[in-house]
Design goal:
It is a single chain. The protein is α+β, with helices and mostly antiparallel strands. It has 2 domains: about 40-195, FAS1 domain; about 205-370, FAS1 domain (Roll). It has 14 helices and 16 strands. It has helices at about 1-25, 40-45, 50-60, 60-65, 80-90, 100-110, 115-125, 205-210, 225-230, 240-250, 255, 275-280, 285-295, 295-305; strands spanning about 75-80, 130, 140-145, 150-155, 160-165, 175-185, 190-195, 210-215, 220-225, 265-270, 310, 325, 330-340, 340-345, 355-360, 365-370. The strands form 4 sheets. It has a 7-stranded mixed sheet with strand order 2-1-7-6-5-4-3. Strands 11-10-16-15 form a 4-stranded mixed sheet. Strands 12-13-14 form a 3-stranded antiparallel sheet, with no helix packed on it. Helix 3 (about 50-60) packs parallel to helix 6 (about 100-110). It is elongated, with a radius of gyration of 28 Å.
Length: about 375
């Protein structure tokens, strides 16, 4: 009898373990595949996205964004009116309407047309990145690498969402404002915008200043060389020869343009040569560079660090009274905004921003009318 009891106990244990295993396996079941209309299908029926739909089909991008297995995407989709304005300018035909644009895309656009298939593909992919960002997740001060490869900056001013600060800038073209948010799709989300964006093309803030580094040599080769940067002093008070010399002399080039992928963002507040002359109590650019030459690399580097902020900070990410820390330990300035004027209150020079949001794909430059102390 004991033998049968033992067998019963063993069988019961096996059944219990098996049921537990099956229950446990249920926790690892694959989730149900996404269902509902995709980004492309939503565009095909949305009254404000007729041109987007035509463009996705003509460029061949529809196959990517119509596939729920390709991941989730966020699309900042130009409104039909924005596309119409874009094509009017590109084709120099101010009378074009929405139907004309769709007909141009479907029947005229080619590899050699005024707006080529490749060019439109590039434009479209700059409005898309490979993660889903709903309006509730837009906090401002955000940057994403787009499907096109260039970076897209998102700011939030009050309830208004802005792309690339909605401000003209070197390499950036015009930004855009978000019109409608959270048009849901099974493979992402669409937000409509009021302009067709131009991708950022400048590689880095250092490239904007004309500085490059070859990391294939030991030590890395910085261009221009220190001697070449010194010789570039030309007496033009409006350019940035002194700052460029200071970056190289202060051994800051490899900090601001490191050998990493992706490159980090830095925000540079750049005063021109005329303002650096005053800062260094110099009569000429030659005198200013002589003053920098007399300093140690660390001393010059500290002057540069005080003009630089870590991260990608657009004017539309700043708020009145905000304290901003520079790369120089213990040094900061306060943002003062009066109307359209942004002042960097450092307690000494208090420079104003004269040209904001010069965007690159690794950094932002803001022109200021004095050197930060």
């Amino acid at each position: 009898m004991k033998r049968y009891t033992r067998i019963y106990t063993i069988v019961t244990a096996i059944v219990v373990v098996s049921l537990a295993f099956v229950a446990g396996c249920s926790e690892f079941e694959q989730p149900e595949p996404a269902s509902g209309p995709t980004i492309v299908e939503v565009a095909s029926t949305h009254p404000d996205l007729n041109i987007l739909f035509a463009a996705l089909k003509r460029t061949g991008l529809a196959s990517s964004y119509n596939n729920v297995n390709s991941g989730n995407f966020t699309v900042f989709a130009p409104h039909d009116s924005a596309f119409t304005v874009f094509f009017r300018a590109q084709l120099n035909q101010p009378a074009l309407d929405e139907i004309d644009v769709i007909n141009y895309i479907n029947t005229t656009m080619s590899t050699t047309s005024t707006v080529t298939i490749a060019a439109l593909t590039t434009r479209l992919n700059y409005h898309i990145f490979s993660s889903e960002l709903t309006s509730a997740q837009i906090t401002g001060g955000q940057v994403f690498t787009t499907q096109q490869g260039a970076r897209l900056s998102i700011s939030k001013v009050g309830s208004q969402v802005l792309l690339n600060a909605n401000n003209a800038g070197t390499g950036a073209g015009n930004g855009a404002k978000v019109i409608t948010t959270d048009i849901d799709a099974s493979n992402g989300v669409i937000h409509t915008v009021n302009k067709v964006l131009n991708p950022v093309t400048t590689a880095s803030a250092m490239a904007s200043l004309g500085i490059s580094i070859n990391y294939g040599t030991n030590p890395p080769t910085i261009t221009p060389s220190l001697a070449a940067a010194e010789a570039a002093a030309d007496g033009n008070a409006a350019d940035f020869d002194i700052l460029i010399y200071a970056i190289i002399k202060g051994e800051m080039a490899t900090t601001l343009l490191p050998n990493t992928t992706p490159l980090p963002d830095f925000t540079l507040f750049t005063a021109n040569d005329g303002r650096w002359l005053a800062e260094l109590a110099a009569a000429t650019e030659v005198d200013a560079i002589a003053a920098l030459k007399a300093m140690t690399a660390a001393e010059v580097g500290n002057k540069v660090k005080n003009q630089v902020v870590a991260g990608r900070v657009l004017s539309t990410d700043l708020s009145n009274g905000q304290t901003v820390n520079t790369l120089l330990t213990g040094k900061s300035f306060t943002i003062t905004i009066s109307g359209s004027t942004i002042t960097l209150t450092d307690g000494a020079n208090n420079p104003d921003v004269t040209t904001a949001n010069i965007l690159t794909n690794a950094g932002v430059l803001h022109r200021i009318d004095d050197v930060l102390k």
